Amino acid sequence: MYPLNVAAKERVLAPMIQKSAWAPPRPAAVGRLPRRKLAGMSTAHHPAPSLPTAELHLHIEGTLEPELILALAERNGIKLPYPTLAELRAQYEFTDLQSFLNLYYANMAVLVTEDDFADMTRAYLRRAQAAGVRHAEIMMDPQAHVNRGVPLATAINGVASALATSEAEFGISTGLIAAFLRDLSEESALEILEQLLEMKAPIIGIGLDSAEVGNPPQKFVRLFDRARAAGLRLVAHAGEEGPPSYVVDALDLLKVERIDHGIRCLDDAALVARLAAEQMPLTVCPLSNVRLRAVDTITDHPLTAMLDAGLNVSVNSDDPAYFGGYVDDNFGAVSAAFGLDADTMAVLAGNSIRSSFAPDSRKSELLAELAEWRSVQA
Ligand code: ADE
Ligand code: ZN
What we know:
The protein is α/β, with parallel strands linked by helices and 378 residues long. The chain has a single domain (49-375), classed as TIM Barrel (Alpha-Beta Barrel), CATH 3.20.20.140. The protein is built from 18 helices and eight strands. The chain has helices at 6-18, 66-76, 85-89, 97-107, 114-131, 142-146, 152-164, 166-170, 186-198, 221-229, 244-252, 269-278, 286-291, 303-308, 320-323, 327-338, 342-354, 360-375, and strands at residues 53-59, 133-140, 173-181, 205-209, 233-238, 258-261, 281-284, 312-315. The protein has an eight-stranded parallel beta sheet. Strand 4 (205-209), helix 10 (221-229) and strand 5 form a beta-alpha-beta unit. The longest helix is centred in the N-terminal third of the chain and has 18 residues, at 114-131. The model is unreliable at 1-24 and 29-44 (pLDDT under 50). Bound molecules: adenine and zinc ion (ZN). Residues 57, 59, 209, 237, 260, 318 line the site of zinc ion (ZN). Zinc ion binds next to strand 1.
């Protein structure tokens, strides 16, 4: 809508993205290597390698850092209700999922042009590279943009253009997942899905997100049938705030291949046994669960209980700009809370790689990298 010429773009974005005024948050040291292993090792000239992992649960709009929100608002001439960094940051106190979603959707107002979507995506990839992410399956919310007047092609092409160069620029292979807002109608979702198929959008799958309670999987059976018929992969948020029955219905009615979150499965022993038997991937997001009060503190998080129950869990960041950290921060938090050893970290990362939709050849490559990482921890 307000494209900047190259010089103006450099003026606005260069200090924000490339110089010291703004850089993506720094990776957490703890996520790189279990601390107790450092003692006998020389790290003076060889920085510890990051744990290689796949990020399977990431909303690209949830990577908009406050500094980037303000810079994009300025670039697009948008007046935000929270005009300073301090005022904006003061909004990041959440009581539940809906309180977060209100801010998350409001902040999307700054995403107007293809460049905005591309810059947001590239900033995530840069930070993810530092976090050890080697493969990322990235959700975006097309309806959230179309419904505020941004053309579907603008949003999709912007994100996709950054993903197209991700492997060459950052060494991160990627896939794009169109997530549908479950608090909107199935008709709205079907309409957007048809447009995505018509325009041959480079998506590998669909997901289901937004306000969970009161919007059960059975509302979207036709949507998932259509996506499956089109050859798309299927995932859905379930059991974040909603009951275990939503997880069961996502499996049985939507026939999803992964459950996003799924932590509330622990309230149903039969469901846990089924998920373990099927090795159904659960993309867990520890810091998100703390910030959205699904659990009280990180030490109350069920991650280790889920591992003990034989569940196929991975560690992911969900909306890292809102929840206090990227995937390395999430690994760091659970590692510190539960004293995880290198074997457990490697199990979590291995689960993420095996549960991804990457080609088998890429999975093998990344599992070999993980084995290499593990061998230098011994
Ligand atoms: N959209 C972005 N983040 C989400 C989350 N944690 N749960 C549901 N919908 C979301
Ligand atoms: Zn999510």
